[in-house]
Design a protein that fits this description.
- With about 210 residues, the chain is mostly beta strands.
- It has one domain: Glycoside hydrolase family 11/12, catalytic domain (Jelly Rolls, Sandwich).
- It contains one helix and 13 strands; from the N terminus they run βββββββββββαββ.
- The chain has an eight-stranded mixed β-sheet. A three-stranded antiparallel β-sheet has the order 2-3-13, with no helix packed on it. Strands 5-11 form a two-stranded antiparallel sheet.
- β2 and β3 form a beta hairpin.
- Its EC number is 3.2.1.8.
Length: about 210
């Protein structure tokens, strides 16, 4: 499965956020979008605006955040799976595993924040024309898909940042599995934009 995304109008001040889990996301359970797109992820701490159209596989947002905050928004699938995704700048494949509870990111482009900062390095994996720095961490008593809980995080962060291309998620899942990742019992999976400071605008389509 391929996902085509376009991201426009981002300002240089925008940065990739430290991960924060969502609470009470909107969910569209009918498979009615392109390629079965049926899920809306919307964690937004009232620091911007978000709109989506699952039928068209699109979303857009803006943010203007003068104080600390966070959002993670996207459209995608319930449930996640190994897919090939074409993505644009400042996007990440983002999702959850139910049990053991795990949050994961495959990051294609970042601002000046390194998502692996302070986490355990697991080396590198090569996929889709680039090496990715792989890391793992634990979040203690933080918001999650089941409320406040403790869960594991996995990241693959692309070294050669890019604004478009294919993301083969199965390559990352296989590498992470050597370090305890369970590529089963998926919860949702989306292509997402995340930011916690600065301002900007993005539009995104999935098909």
């Amino acid at each position: 499965m391929k996902v085509f995304a376009t991201l426009t109008g981002l300002m240089a001040a925008s940065v990739f956020a430290a991960p924060v889990a969502e609470a009470d996301p909107e969910t569209e359970l009918e498979k009615r979008g392109p390629n079965g797109i049926n899920y809306v992820q919307n964690y937004n701490s009232n620091l911007g605006a978000f709109s989506s159209d699952v039928n068209a596989g699109t979303f857009s947002m803006y943010w203007d955040q003068g104080v600390n905050g966070d959002f993670v928004v996207g459209v995608g699938w319930w449930t996640g799976a190994a897919r090939a995704a074409n993505s644009a700048s400042y996007l990440a494949v983002y999702g959850w595993i139910n049990n053991p509870q795990t949050e994961y990111y495959i990051v294609e482009n970042t601002g000046n924040y390194n998502p692996c900062s302070g986490l355990q390095s697991l080396g590198t994996v090569t996929s889709d024309g680039s090496a990715y720095n792989v890391c793992k961490g634990t979040r203690y008593n933080q918001p999650s898909i089941t409320g406040t809980s403790t869960f594991t995080q996995f990241f693959s962060v692309r070294q050669n940042k890019r604004s478009s291309g294919t993301v083969t998620t199965s390559n990352h899942f296989s590498y992470w599995a050597r370090n305890g990742f369970s590529a089963s019992n998926f919860n949702f999976q989306v292509l997402a934009v995340e930011a916690f400071s600065g301002n900007g605008h993005a539009s995104f389509s999935v098909s």
